[in-house]
Structures are given as structure tokens and as C-alpha cells.
Amino acid sequence: MAAKNTNTIMLEILQFPFMQRALISGTVLALLLAVLGVFVVIKKMSFYSEGIAHASLAGVAIGVLLSWNPLVTALIFTAGLATLMWFIQKKTTISADSSIGILFTSGMALGILLMSLQRGYQPELISFLFGNILSITNAELILIVVLSVVFLIFLVRQFKQLVIIAFNTELAEASGARVALYEWLFYVMAGVAVVLGIKVLGIVLVTALLVIPVAIGKIVADNLIWFVIASVIAAEVMVWLGLLVSYYADLPSGATIVLVGTVIFILSMFLKDNAIK
Amino acid sequence: MASKPILQVKNLNVQLGGHDVLRDINFTIEPGDIAAVIGPNGSGKSTLLRAILGLVPHQGDITYAGKPITPRQLQKIGYVPQYFEFDRTLPIALWDFMRLWQKKYDRKKIGKLLDHFNLIPKANIKIGNLSGGQLQRLFIARALLNDPKVLLLDEATAGVDVAGEEDIHEIIGHLNDVHKLTVIFISHEIGAVYDYSTKVLCLSNKLVCFGATHQVLNKQVLADLFLDTHLAAVKHGGKKHKHHHA
């Protein structure tokens, strides 16, 4: 009976094209952000992803002001900002904390300033701040899927190189790895993926899809492969269960996805013996 | 007939933060040498190894087998840095860790190296759960994965107990004997330098002595190297210290 109910619910949901787009984009982005999140956590770059998400507001604002697709302008702006961030890290002695703090609050401030030039209610701003997976268009879906597939192919093919660089830059460089190139690619990919994720969770919450699944993976896994697999499973459960609950309880999808993740995280802490000291 | 140098350093100068860390360093290392690098803290020992690996900007020529060191040649140089911090909660098992650094997965080789360093019983546990000494042994095993011709050890036995330290020296001695592995190691243990090295480089931001260990290293050299630097530091700092390391 329960199974039949679940099937009925799923069929009902899948009737709507906006739900189909939401589920496809959510599935693909959950996969991408969970895999990227593994590197983000090993490299201790959570603050970077949080910061670049906020700074992307300037890119969104440019799109709104110029009447271009804000997702596209945010992607271009973020790729540029990620490159600038990488350059500062490589060529100056400014600490990562300071440069991220300065660049990304400035990006957010620029976004607010540009948005203030546009009069009246701005639904797109609200959609980018808090996410609206149900508003994803066909063109955006294609963009999300194509970029995600390209990034995932790169991440899988260069998995070992990226892990050793994330683990210890100096050791990687001493073993002949092309650290500078890979780091730049990773900065740009992480920035672009975060912006894609903004459509699902919004600027305020997007980091959750990078951090929560990986935190769950870290608790339940004992080796690297399981770490990646567990993180991906956690991310997919977050998105699918979050969407189902938000659909039936009529709740905001982004916030529901994050809170589902929080519940899974807490459960995994209690289920794994050594997770609590 | 003298063999062709495997590593040659000519007129090496390194400046960091406006200070001369290494000045006009010249030396050659032959295949099969075990060279110890000694000197007080801040004398440029680690910087010398990092310059060889291209990790710090430098002036001068450093060649491996007569050619400038490229990323490809770096694969022939194994490196064990001083202990470094990493997230100990990461689910990376020992076996995973070794596998990451191998170009082509060779299960047998990983097993053999872990066995050499008594790490087989720990192969499936997280690297974050290893003790300091076990971690050092793992890092040395990692450095030997791709059959290096030269091994650079930056205080690699720090944190390892006496028995473990002897094991490490024995394994390196064996690799040196059988496979002609060239080793350059930084050490504060003058006893180990006498026992295991064939050559010695004394650093005090410049090369104070270089040559066969038993010919070059004597009480006067050690006193000059450690005591003079210590006295200079005391004079500079205006503080009185009653003990010294040498």
C-alpha cells in the first residue's frame, strides 16, 4: 500500500514539466556539487564557496540591469572573480581569509548597489537569493546539464591529481603535478558550479549542497571511494526527499532540501559509533 | 674514474622576504651518495631541498643528471617534507593514500612498501588515526613509490621512536646498497650523520663545509657551525642562553 502511494506520488509529480526540469537539474547538480565538495572539504575551501556564492550577486545584478539572462552573466562574472582570487593567492602574500573576505563582500556590495538602480519589485533577485528550482527554464536546464557533465568528466579523469593537490600543494608540486593550472581550473569550476547551484538553493543556502553531503560522507566512510559515493548518495537523497516534502507540504524547496540534509547529518552522527567523542 | 654527478648545484642564491636564506651554494652529489645536511635552525637546510624541487624562487643552476630539473624529472626525486598539518578526520585509508601518488596502480608494490615499513596491519585504517612515527614511515614509503633515483628527507625521522628510526635507516641503507639510491637527508642527530652519511653539507646560510663525512666533520667544524651561530644569536638578541645543541 505504502509502495503504491509512493509510486502514485512520483507519477503525479512527474506529470509537470517544471517538476521534470527541477528533478533533472537537481539530480545533476547534487552529483556535481557532492563530488566537487569532496575536494572543497579536503582543501578547506568552504569559505571560498560561501564567499563566491554571495559575490555572484553582482553578476546577477548586471544581468537584471542589462536585461540579459542573470544566470549567464553570473557565471561569466564568477569565472572572472575566481580567476582573480586564484591570481591573488598565487602572486601575493595576502592570506586566503582576507582576500576572500574583501573580494566577496565587495562583490555582494556591488550587487546590492546595482540592484538599487533597478526600481520596483525584483522577483529575480528573490529567486536568486533563496533559490527556486521550480523556475528553471529549458535553456537553463541544458546549460546546467552540459556544464555539469563536462566538469564531472574532468573531475573523474583527474581525480587523483586533484586529490593530491587538495591534500598538500607542496607535496603535489614536488612530485611534478601541474599545480597552478589545476588549482585555477578548480577555482573556476567550483565558482561556476556554485552559481549553477544557486538556481536550486539560492545564494544564501547553496553552500549547503557542497558541505552537508560531504560532512555526511566523512562520517560514514572509511576510505576515499566510499567517501565520494556516500557524499553523492547523501546529496541525491537531500534533493529528491527535499523536493518531495516541499511539494506536498507547500514549503520553499531550497530551505526544505537543506533541512533534510541537516536531519540526515544528525542521524548519521548518531548511527556511526565513533562520530561523537 | 669519478661518476657523473646526479645532482649539481651551482651558485645557488635564495632570497625570501628580503633576506638571504642561501648565498652562493655550490656542490655536487654523485649517484649512490648519502649526504647529510646539517646546520642550526634557520640556516637554510629545508630551503635548500625546496630549491632543488623548484618550490622556492631561486637564482643559480640546479641540474639532475646534467639537465635542468623539469616536472618529468621531479618524478625521479622522492621527497619527504617535515611533518605537515592535514585534516585528520578525512576518510583516506593508508592504501588509498599510497594509490593516489602512483601513476599506474601497482598493488604488489604498494603492499611491498607498506610491508617494509611495518604498515600492512594499518593498510585499511584512516591516515588520520596513525601516530606521528607511523605517519612519517608512510610518507617515506610514499616517496619511494615511483622508484626515485634521489630521495630528499627533511628531518624524516622526527617523531619516530629509536627502533623505528633504525628501521628507516636500515631500509634506506638497503635501497642505497642494492638500487644505488642517492639520499640527501637533513638531520639534527650528529650521531646519525656520522653513522649513515658518506658526505656532509654544513649550512649557515652559506656552505660552511662540504666533503666526505669522516674527513670534514670534526669538533671544530661543529663548534664553528653551531656555537658561532648560537653566540651571534645571543649577541643579537641580547639574551644569555647557557645551553647549545651541538
UniProtKB/TrEMBL annotation, chain A:
Keyword Ion transport: no
InterPro entries: ABC_BtuC-like, ABC_TroCD
Keyword entries, A-Z: Membrane, Transmembrane, Transmembrane helix, Transport
GO process annotations (BP): response to zinc ion; transmembrane transport
A GO cellular-component term linked to this record: ATP-binding cassette (ABC) transporter complex
Pfam families documented for this protein: ABC-3 (PF00950)
Domain of life where this protein originates: Bacteria
Compartment(s): Cell membrane; Membrane
Membrane topology of this protein: Multi-pass membrane protein
Gene3D superfamilies assigned: ABC transporter involved in vitamin B12 uptake, BtuC (1.10.3470.10)
Signal peptide span: none
Main location, first listed in the record: membrane
Parts of the chain that traverse the membrane: 22-42, 71-88, 100-117, 129-155, 187-212, 224-248, 254-271
Family from the record: Belongs to the ABC-3 integral membrane protein family.
Protein name as annotated: Metal ABC transporter permease
UniProtKB/TrEMBL annotation, chain B:
Coiled-coil residues: none
GO molecular function: ATP binding; ATP hydrolysis activity
SMART domains found in the cross-reference section: AAA
Pfam families documented for this protein: ABC_tran (PF00005)
InterPro entries in the cross-refs: AAA+_ATPase, ABC_transporter-like_ATP-bd, ABC_transporter-like_CS, Metal_Ion_Import_ABC, P-loop_NTPase
Keyword Plastid: no
Entry's family note: Belongs to the ABC transporter superfamily.
Descriptive protein name: ABC transporter domain-containing protein
